[in-house]
Design goal:
Strand order of the largest sheet: 3-4-2-1-5-6
Shape: globular
Order of helices and strands: HHHHEHEEEHEHEEEHHEEHHHEHEHHH
Radius of gyration: 27 Å
Mean pLDDT: 80
Number of helices: 16
Low-confidence stretches: 1-43
Largest sheet: 6 strands, mixed
Number of strands: 12
Length: 508
């Protein structure tokens, strides 16, 4: 929908003066009073952030190789005192070179998603394979410490360093910094939809400063939602220069065909501006999209989600082994929690509730009891105070919750017994939120797709606000996970779950 509020008065602080140059002028003039959304300058942030990541990478590799060298001293050959030093230096240089070759610091993938971590892992694996092969061919006795210590330790430190840098980048973006200014090109409906999606994902690193649409006239002060129209599609190169945009995103429009996009790419080459073609697949992640060039025709293939096969078996193995390890490590604390529940309130320590699992099969989910006995029967009395959304029942100050139960819920300790559901194969460590049968009965649209995979002990809903999420937000998180799950994504969610639990946001 196109909204046309009165044009805001021009403000020097929010407009960017047009740089002087020899650029070919567009066929139509652009009013200098067209409002441009204010955002902190982003010209230098990719360079600074890349330097930060390079520093953390270098520190991680040096620590790993130095540790391996120190541990290799007792078994080092006395006749070649400097051999291990040379091996360590060569490994460090090759490691840094491999990270660069994999473009692991590419500004288009750092700070978001799992692709950055995947490239770090691939770079490390390539180094390990190359060094091992070279040592075998040259018949060089490679110190075992560099394989057994440097590679695993270095990988862990690299990932920790990237996570720390990513956390810092997200903090900047929450403050409106380290953002890339983007101009949208396309139909008014396409611009409005993409602008809403970008605004809903501020940590993606983009802020829309304007749009160019077919037959767009900035003199009329047109706005698309809260995005100012800066000109026509033909005005894009001049507009990009005027507002100092870092990226141009093309969305669907009848007037924008392949030749227009190609011409636009040619004209943007000298500006250093990224040209992005938005395919309109907002909830489809990169791993499912494959670009297939066929005789000059670029086709984007979208793979179907995978819910079986070797990858899913591997996920199940990780679930079982991970749950077993955690149960063994936390067995004593779990016994202590159970004892505390029995001592502080009447009733059993465990609470069992019917939930719906994969393919609609029901199972008995186990939790530590956090409410008084008979709480389920009291829900009807509290329906009028429901603070939930859609089909969810939520009550922030639920009177049925015991004092100890509030503590358990605050830190998600009440969910630890679900590890036994994971061991039984009824749940996964990571997956959609396990729904109640009453919730499933109200499902419509694509909501039943949540049950194509096992429900999870944690998931995107857990690390994105838990009970603070509306029904629609939680459903979208679950569907996104179901459509795009990966092993690497699961590991990342598990790491972020620890942070979400200690922050206890949205837990009540």
């Amino acid at each position: 929908m196109v909204a046309q509020p009165a044009p805001a008065p021009a403000q020097p602080a929010t407009t960017t003066p047009e740089p002087v140059g020899t650029r070919e002028q567009p066929t139509r003039a652009i009013a200098s009073s067209t409002p441009v959304r204010r955002v902190f300058p982003s010209i230098s942030w990719p360079r600074r952030y890349s330097s930060l990541v390079l520093t953390t990478d270098l520190a991680a590799i040096l620590v790993a190789t130095a540790t391996a060298f120190m541990l290799s001293l007792p078994s080092a050959d006395p006749a070649r005192p400097g051999a291990n030093v040379v091996v360590g230096l060569v490994l460090a240089v090759l490691w840094l070179a491999s990270l660069a070759a994999e473009k692991s610091r590419d500004r288009r993938i750092v700070g978001i998603g799992v692709e950055e971590y995947g490239r770090v892992w691939r770079a490390t694996w390539h180094v390990f394979a190359a060094v091992a092969l070279a040592a075998y061919v040259a018949e060089v006795d490679l110190p075992r410490e560099y394989v057994a210590i440097a590679i695993p330790l270095g990988t862990a430190l690299l990932l920790v360093g990237r996570y720390g840098a990513r956390t810092y980048l997200k903090r900047l973006r929450r403050r409106g910094r380290a953002l890339s200014r983007m101009v949208l090109i396309g139909s008014r409906s396409g611009v409005a939809e993409l602008a809403r999606e970008i605004a809903a994902r501020p940590l993606a690193g983009y802020v829309v400063v304007g749009a160019c649409v077919p037959d767009g006239d900035p003199l009329e002060g047109e706005w698309i939602d809260d995005v100012p129209v800066l000109g026509d599609v033909l005005d894009v190169p001049h507009t990009v220069t005027r507002v100092r945009a870092d990226a141009v995103a093309v969305v669907g429009a009848d007037h924008i065909n392949a030749s227009v996009v190609r011409d636009l790419g040619y004209r943007l080459e000298s500006t250093g501006t990224d040209l992005i073609v938005a395919p309109g697949l907002v909830d489809v992640a990169g791993p499912r999209m494959v670009l297939s060039p066929a005789e000059g025709l670029s086709l984007v293939h979208v793979d179907a989600p995978q819910y079986a096969g070797v990858r899913y078996v591997f996920k199940s193995i990780i679930d079982w082994v991970g749950a077993l390890v955690v149960v063994l490590l936390l067995s004593l604390p779990m016994l202590a929690i159970a004892a505390a529940i029995r001592l502080t309130s009447d009733g059993p320590a465990l609470y069992r509730q019917e939930r719906v699992g994969r393919d609609g099969k029901t199972f008995r989910m186990i939790k530590f009891r956090s409410m008084r006995v008979g709480a389920d029967a009291e829900r009807a009395v509290l329906e009028g105070e429901n603070e939930g959304n859609g089909v969810l029942f939520k009550l922030k100050d639920d009177p049925r919750v015991t004092p100890l139960g509030r503590v358990l819920r605050r830190y998600s300790l009440d969910e630890l017994p679900q590890l036994f559901n994971v061991l039984k194969g009824e749940m996964s460590l990571v997956g959609p939120r396990p729904p109640l049968p009453s919730e499933v009965a109200l499902y419509d649209g694509w909501a039943p797709r949540r049950m194509l995979v096992k429900p999870g002990l944690t998931g995107l809903w857990q690390i994105s606000g838990r009970s603070d999420l509306s029904w629609d937000e939680g459903l979208r998180k679950d569907l996104y996970y179901v459509e795009n799950w990966t092993i690497a994504g699961d590991l990342l969610i598990l790491l972020r779950t620890a942070k979400a639990v200690f922050a206890h946001e949205g837990a009540y």
